[in-house]
DNA sequence: TGTTAAAATTGGTCAGGCAACTAGATTACT
DNA sequence: AGTAATCTAGTTGCCTGACCAATTTTAACA
């Protein structure tokens, strides 16, 4: 005998029901906060007994998908699915302080994990800076490349959570810190040269895997941003 | 043979039943491969209906604790290191890795800046944990207090940016890490006790401003969460 | 002894019932 | 009018008893 494989292992009914309800939720048929049909209604709709529905709901409740309230009904739980946050009204100091810590971690992990492609991507941002300085191109581009450097650095950590956090930090266009730095850089040729120089130094340290130096350079870099802001 | 104990109050019946059976398994009353009493027997022993027993067994089966075979019985599963829910293990690792770094910073800053109110707020979350353990209240509350501890700790840094980052990390209800931890804590009394104990230790270290110890305890705490997930 | 068939056991599902609870409408009171 | 207490319809929580389907055990038989 060849195929003794259990071909279609029958799913238990409560599992099928749980899957179906879960699919309905994931496909936005029911959104967070929505009330599911009553147990009796579900039973009638799916042509099963209320007992089976309850077994399925118990599972979904344990899995934190729904919230079953006695005497009321079952509600789809709220689920936050990304690591975005806002920094609108937070102070410049706070933002810089956090960057100091986060980028320190990023540098450390980037040194451990950066791929050849990561390095190339980071290098490209520095090349971008160089070009915009040389050709006196639009300051917007300069600033974009500057931010891209830090983003690409974050990507080199290979940690999506960290990448998302970093991006959130860097994408606060409206934040006074960025506005201000943008202006400073706009006005000062020297500031642009300086920033490029610092980026190049950090990248060089990462390439040689000199963690201590890389972290120190990053620290100085951010310290410098801070001074730029307060001067 | 020692029989399972009757039921208390408050938490939903099927949850209590699942807890009891799980505890019986974790305390080696039933070892991997062992056959549990029949549903009818469990119902009679626990003085509950078979329907409630089945809801509990459904949960335990989904959580990969037992294996329910039709016409045969329920068997305790081998405790292996595979997760039952299809989930990129990388995602969990990444979240834990980031928490490790972020919470380390949080502890450091909290020690420097926590106000009397901050400390009180953190203490309150521990008191909440204590109460829910004592009164066998709904596990949702326990989990909420557990998260609140880390949130209040973040608030003690007085850095809004950091607070928001921390919140974004802790509010991932749908993330497999939280789902899984929620379930573990739900079933295991010991896990709850352990968590409270660790939180108390961290708070104590912060109060005495013992930075080194606090950071180490936090590290162990998160390491422990990690083990809980992978065990 | 080995095979087969019947019986007992066990989980799977169902229908229905009452109690406990919640939210919303209604009523009573100030 | 505004507020508090009360009622009511609807929902979940839990239980009971029954029957079905898969599996194991037992018994009968060749």
Structure described in brief:
The first copy, chain A, has 231 residues and is mainly alpha-helical. Chain A has helices spanning 13-26, 39-46, 50-62, 92-113, 116-134, 139-155, 160-170, 176-187, 189-207, 211-230, and strands spanning 66-69, 73-76.
State the main characteristics.
homodimer; 231 residues; mainly alpha; Arc Repressor Mutant, subunit A; Four Helix Bundle (Hemerythrin (Met), subunit A); 2 domains; two-stranded antiparallel ribbon; 67% helix; 3% strand; elongated; disordered N terminus; DNA-binding; transcription regulation (chains A, B); TF_FadR/GntR_C (chains A, B); DNA-binding transcription factor activity (chains A, B); WH-like_DNA-bd_sf (chains A, B); transcription (chains A, B)
Topology:
2 copies of one chain form a homodimer.
Chain A (H helix, E strand, L loop, with lengths): L12 H14 L12 H8 L3 H13 L3 E4 L3 E4 L15 H22 L2 H19 L4 H17 L4 H11 L5 H12 L1 H19 L3 H20 L1
The first copy, chain A, binds a DNA duplex (30 and 30 nucleotides) through helix 2 and helix 3.
Question: What would you say this structure looks like, in words?
Answer:
The structure is a homodimer of 231-residue chains. The first copy, chain A, is mostly helical and 231 residues long. Chain A has two domains: 13-76, Winged helix-like DNA-binding domain superfamily/Winged helix DNA-binding domain (Arc Repressor Mutant, subunit A, Orthogonal Bundle), CATH 1.10.10; 92-230, GntR ligand-binding domain-like (Four Helix Bundle (Hemerythrin (Met), subunit A), Up-down Bundle). In chain A, 67% of the residues lie in helices and 3% in strands. Chain A has ten helices and two strands. Chain A has helices spanning 13-26, 39-46, 50-62, 92-113, 116-134, 139-155, 160-170, 176-187, 189-207, 211-230; strands at residues 66-69, 73-76. In chain A, strands 1-2 form a two-stranded antiparallel sheet. In chain A, strand 1 and strand 2 form a beta hairpin. The N and C termini of chain A lie far apart (84 Å). Chain A binds chain B through residues 12, 14-15, 18, 51, 54-56, 58-59, 62-64, 77-87, 89-91, 94-95, 97-98, 101, 105, 159-162, 165, 168-169, and chain B through 14-15, 18, 51, 54-56, 58-59, 62-63, 68, 90-91, 94-95, 97-98, 101, 105, 159-162, 164-165, 167-169, 171-174, 178-179, 182-183, 186. Chain A binds a DNA duplex (30 and 30 nucleotides) through residues 12-14, 38-40, 43, 48-52, 54, 57, 68-74.
């Amino acid at each position: 005998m060849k195929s003794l494989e259990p071909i279609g292992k029958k799913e238990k009914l409560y599992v099928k029901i749980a899957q179906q309800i879960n699919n309905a939720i994931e496909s936005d048929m029911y959104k967070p906060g929505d009330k599911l049909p009553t147990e009796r209604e579900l039973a009638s709709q799916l042509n099963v007994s209320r007992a089976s529905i309850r077994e399925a709901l118990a599972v979904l409740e344990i899995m934190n998908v729904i919230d079953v309230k006695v005497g009321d009904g079952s509600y789809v739980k709220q689920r936050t699915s990304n690591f975005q946050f806002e920094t609108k009204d937070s102070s410049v100091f706070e933002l810089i302080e956090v960057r100091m810590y986060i980028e320190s971690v990023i540098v450390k992990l980037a040194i451990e994990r950066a791929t050849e492609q990561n390095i190339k991507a980071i290098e490209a941002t520095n090349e971008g800076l160089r070009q915009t300085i040389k050709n006196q191109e639009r300051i917007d581009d300069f600033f974009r490349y500057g931010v891209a450097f830090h983003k690409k650095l974050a990507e080199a950590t290979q940690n999506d959570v960290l990448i998302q956090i970093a991006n959130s930090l860097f994408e606060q266009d409206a934040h006074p810190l960025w506005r201000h730095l943008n202006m400073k850089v706009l006005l000062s040729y020297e500031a642009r040269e300086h920033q490029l120089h610092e980026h190049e130094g950090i990248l060089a340290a990462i390439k040689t895997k000199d963690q201590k130096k890389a972290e120190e350079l990053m620290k100085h870099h951010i310290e410098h941003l801070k001074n730029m802001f307060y001067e």
